[in-house]
Design a protein that fits this description.
Strand content: 15-25%
Helix content: 25-40%
CATH class of the largest domain: Alpha Beta
CATH topology of the largest domain: Aldehyde Dehydrogenase, Chain A, domain 1
Structural class: alpha/beta
Length: 472
Amino acid sequence: MELLAKKLIGSKEFEGEIGEIINPYTKKVTSKYVKCSIEDAKNALQTAKKAFEKTKNSPLYQRIAWIEDVAKKLEKRKEEFAKFITLEVAKPISQAKTEVQRCIENLKICAAEGYRILGETIPTDATKSGAKTLSFYKRVPSGVVVAITPFNFPLNLVAHKIAPALIAGNSVVLKPTPEAPYTAYAFAKLFIESKYAIEDALSVIYGDADVGSTLVKSPIPRVISFTGSVPVGKTIIQNAGIKKVTLELGGNAATFVEHSADLNWAAARCAIGAFANSGQVCISLQRIYVDEKIYEEFANKLGEEASRLKIGDPFNEETFMGPLINEDAAIRAENWIKSALKEGARIISGGKRERNILAPTILADVTDDMKIVCEEVFAPIVSLVKVKGYEEALKKMNNSPYGLQYSMFSNRMDLIKKAIDDFEAGGVIINDIPTLRFDIQPYGGMKLSGLGREGAKYAIEEMTEIKTVIIR
């Protein structure tokens, strides 16, 4: 099955030189795409600039209906879209179906938020100089939004960017991950072909650093919304100029398992958090700090949970974990494991690689100076670190340049209250994994984990400007 993703500049499709996407599991061509150039990026920006004159003046009811219409269309084709995801990035089909369902819910949430793009009155008559004035502010669209998305959630993370941008009245240029062009293309077509669509409001182009750099450096966009790595995020900040920039740059998610916790629950959930999508999640559980009183017991339970996970063919409904996105990623992760073992870590389970499938790997006796706990692994590897209690766990968890989401398993309310205040992260989860995210919530991190927040309500705020009005 070969799927062709054409470049979409506004409402028009264009032909061109063809590139191929190889499925990470089958190693067969599963989709093709029209390669885009720097000139295509410039044309897409000019198209979006002209379209903004239409989008900013469009009625809100039309934009709400637009997003609702896309949600309905996606609902009817959800099985098909799940297959697109698995074909391009080899995400297990059951998890691909979950992603599509989340995307549908995400669109519905965004449509509902359209009714709450609110301003408020300002009591300027509270000052003597403003006694005879009436003042209020309203939210207005920022302009052209450039959205750059990654491979690990090639559908829902696109929705997290383009749906809030469009409902707020912006125009959008989307550069999706090079690994999943057809998923983004098919999704964009739902927007473009909707009867409520605003002409040329959405463009889709494919490419690597040269195309992305052209989009970011251009003076046309007012907002850059990016999800990806810290090095690329730093480059965007350096090159964007005076623009609004939202960055979701991943993390090094951690949890603390305190001795009062339900260990069976904690182990079952930690296995999911560490190994879902082969660990290729920004909030994938990477560090587990375990109270010394329960360390070995928890390690054994986690190993048992990992052994139950079905690994292999992502097209099998029962498969929990498939391959990494490519063999280079798997080799890199394998080398990190070897390095940790040389430094004194031991393997509880996993550690073996076959092509780009790395078995779910649990490392014990990991220390703070090992690279495997200092950097984002983005692979199915989780490290166990023994601690004497909450205070030591807290110190070690916060001693990271990242701060996306942390969690704690405990039945002690005093520690739960402390953790909510003490954890240096954008999200704190109690009695579940840091990998837990709901699309309705504000999502984003502290420190190197990024700037700004996603989630429809919060993304709309990032993609709009406040315009203040004074009437004398």
